[in-house]
From TrEMBL:
Superkingdom to which the source organism belongs: Bacteria
Record-linked Pfam families: Rieske, Ring_hydroxyl_A
Domain Rieske: 42-149
Protein name per its UniProtKB record: Rieske 2Fe-2S family protein
GO molecular function terms listed in the Swiss-Prot or TrEMBL record: 2 iron, 2 sulfur cluster binding; iron ion binding; monooxygenase activity; oxidoreductase activity, acting on paired donors, with incorporation or reduction of molecular oxygen
CDD domains, alphabetized: RHO_alpha_C_GbcA-like, Rieske_RO_Alpha_N
Keywords: 2Fe-2S, Iron, Iron-sulfur, Metal-binding, Oxidoreductase
Keyword Metal-binding: yes
Cofactor or coenzyme needed: Fe cation
Length: 373
């Protein structure tokens, strides 16, 4: 697919580096490779609160072609399986579907499975050894309220994947937050274009006037720490309590945050598909699912302290309206970038000094294309 020569410019130091090759954003073969190698590793599959009670099942997409079935077993353990009946491969639940049941029955031929994946019934089969036809289990992990799965049978340790991101995220106690609302977007751009846009504010002065009212676009710092992630922080302007259209919070600060976190917004792109934005009073995430080289589904969720979310009349619109506007500004830019890259004579351009986060991300991607961790 790509060799060292193809990626040499993307692997160069900031100041000499160029964006990834054009094919990385356009080719079906590249996306198919990414499905196996990027989305085959640890990938965010949603929130644990969506599977809160024993017997809960949920079917989700992981990458452009793979379906995963998440279940909450009777012992409280979350498990993940290939979303395919062991008989003829029919999905146990349609993608996006959910149910709370003691058993799950395939709608095609009524093969029935326990919540731990064991086959309990196979109508018409008298001598079938059911123990050999349980659902195919996948590695899974819960981390601060998010669910992660790996399609690979033997992924690297999850703690290695997280690395130093643990220390960045833990103070916000995301597992104790409640998802109050979510939006779904379909963006006509490659998933990497969306991550690259997320990693810089070089564009903010031109397309995000509302954001610049509450955060200086030149502020903050990108971090370079262990783990499969890229991120950093931005300052809030004096007088701004959070990211909202007027800088005011409609909630309360997340308990336990220090002064630095009360005056900044932390952001992290957890490879390959979870973007985490940590505000003083709420957490916002984008979960990316590639649908095609130039098409990505983005599920955006807003999480608040449970005490705030339960207040009579609480309205998350102060955060949601701000980010829905900002998201749509970003999506328009990403879609324009995708159209530009599709031009037959497009050539990858250089990175500005303020795009060090983008440089970290494309270098990470380029190294993974070459098979390096």
């Amino acid at each position: 697919m790509f060799n060292q020569e193809h990626l040499a410019a993307s692997l160069a130091e900031l100041g000499q580096a160029r964006m990834l090759p054009r094919a990385a954003y356009l080719d079906d073969d590249v996306l198919a490779w990414e499905q196996r190698h990027f989305f085959g590793g640890w990938t965010c599959a949603g929130r644990a609160e969506d599977l809160a009670e024993p017997g809960a099942h949920r079917a989700v997409a992981v990458g452009p072609t793979e379906g995963v079935l998440l279940t909450r077993a009777r012992d409280g353990r979350l498990r993940a399986f290939v979303n395919a009946c062991r008989h003829r491969g029919h999905e146990l639940l349609p993608c996006g579907g959910s149910a709370v049941k003691r058993v799950l029955t395939c709608p095609y031929h009524a093969w029935t499975y326990d919540v731990d994946g064991a086959l309990r019934a196979a109508p018409g089969f008298r001598d079938l050894d059911k123990s050999g036809f349980g659902l195919i289990e996948l590695p899974s992990a819960e981390w601060h309220g998010w669910v992660f799965v790996a399609l690979d049978a033997d992924p690297p340790p999850f703690a290695e994947h997280v690395g130093a991101l643990e220390d960045t995220v833990a103070p916000y106690s995301p597992a104790e937050l409640t998802t109050v609302t979510s939006h779904e977007y379909v963006v006509a751009a490659n998933w990497k274009t969306i991550v690259e846009n997320y990693q810089e504010c070089y564009h903010c002065a031109l397309i995000h006037p509302e954001l610049c009212q509450v955060s200086p676009p030149e502020s903050g710092e990108n971090l370079d720490l262990p783990g499969d992630w890229v991120g950093g922080w931005m300052d809030l302007r004096d007088g701004a309590a959070t990211m909202s259209l007027d800088g005011r919070s409609g909630g309360s600060p997340i308990p336990g945050l220090d002064e630095h976190r009360l005056r900044t917004v932390m952001y992290a792109a957890m490879f390959p598909n979870l973007l985490i934005s940590l505000h003083p009073d709420y957490v916002m995430t984008h979960r990316l699912t590639p649908l095609a080289p130039g098409r990505t589904r983005v599920e955006c969720a807003w999480l608040f302290p449970a005490e705030v979310a339960s207040r009579p009349g609480f309205d998350p619109a102060y955060a949601v309206d701000f980010w829905d506007l900002t998201n749509r500004q970003d999506w328009a830019a990403c879609e324009s970038v995708q159209r530009g890259i599709a031009a037959a004579r497009y050539q990858p351009g250089p990175l500005a000094p303020d795009e060090d986060g983008v440089h970290q991300f494309i270098r990470m991607v380029a190294l993974k294309y070459l098979g390096e961790p």
